[in-house]
Write a structure and sequence with these properties.
- This protein is about 70% helix and about 0% strand.
- It is an all-alpha fold.
- Helix 6 packs across helix 10.
- The radius of gyration is 21 Å and the shape is globular.
- It starts with a helix and ends with a helix.
- About 25% of the residues are buried.
Length: about 260
């Protein structure tokens, strides 16, 4: 938290000044406490989720991008300001974890043992990295493009007083939006696809392989159907849920507390 405040103070003279025109004054104790509590929660999610510095950096980028992207699109905040904000947020979460926790084997393939990571040839394939990053960027772009063309402009007009420009929504083209999310696409494939693909079977997988529906109890059958997935699938489900939760909370809190 101290690092984050210091970085914002340091970079304020380079581009974050245009945020002042769209931000509310945070004078209430509960507003400041809420943002501090959420920052601590983000770090706690990373620690107890056993993420390394890269994982938490990617998660921070993905969860903070929607809020800052909307400020750039509808509040005339400069792209340089948006990227300075994202870099500050990512660095302030990356550095503590880089000092306190080693990189996961999937993020250091050259130094890891063969028994620690599966599908090494796929993880090292640059074309697969490119295609999955483009696919993730397209998914982000499609959601944003669909929102621009349907409900989002009307919702913003009704609920926000400080809007400066809606042309970004009405003139939006899908290829341009997708291009703007290429960095997010790379972060998504690194946070979701890479750890799941590199996962090795664990004891849970062995127990599920021994499941016999003919002799299992009702409770065992329910548990098998709900959470009898492979380790790869469980990692993907948990990380996707974490990303959805942190993105919703980050966007909702920052919008409610800070945006006019």
């Amino acid at each position: 938290m101290v690092l984050s405040s210091g970085l914002y103070t340091l970079t304020s003279q380079f581009g974050t000044g245009d945020l002042a025109g769209v931000m509310k004054r945070r004078d209430e104790w509960w507003e400041i406490s809420g943002l501090l509590a959420w920052k601590a929660t983000e770090l706690g999610i990373g620690w107890w989720g056993e993420y390394d510095a890269l994982d938490l950096g990617y998660l921070t980028l993905l969860s903070h991008m929607p809020y800052l992207y909307l400020l750039t699109t509808f509040y005339a905040v400069r792209p340089t300001t948006m990227w300075l904000g994202i870099i500050n947020d990512v660095v302030s979460t990356y550095v503590p974890f880089a000092l306190l926790r080693d990189k996961a084997p999937v993020h250091r393939l050259e130094a890891s043992k063969k028994s620690e990571v599966a599908n090494r040839s796929i993880l090292n394939d640059l074309s697969i990295k490119l295609y999955t990053s483009l696919l993730a960027a397209a998914a982000y772009g499609l959601v944003v493009y669909g929102s621009f063309r349907t409900w989002l402009p009307a919702y913003l007009i009704v609920h926000f007083d400080g809007l400066k420009d809606l042309s970004g929504a009405h003139e939006a083209a899908f290829p341009v939006i997708m291009f703007g999310f290429l960095v997010s696409g790379h972060a998504a494939q690194s946070f979701l696809f890479r750890p799941a693909l590199g996962a090795k079977p664990d004891a849970h997988d062995l127990r599920m392989a021994e499941f016999d529906p003919a002799t299992a109890t009702f409770g065992e059958t329910v548990w098998y159907n709900v959470w009898g997935h492979s380790k790869r699938s469980r990692i993907l489900i948990k990380r996707t849920a974490t990303l959805a939760f942190t993105s919703a909370m980050q966007t909702g809190l920052r919008t409610f507390i800070t945006v006019e």
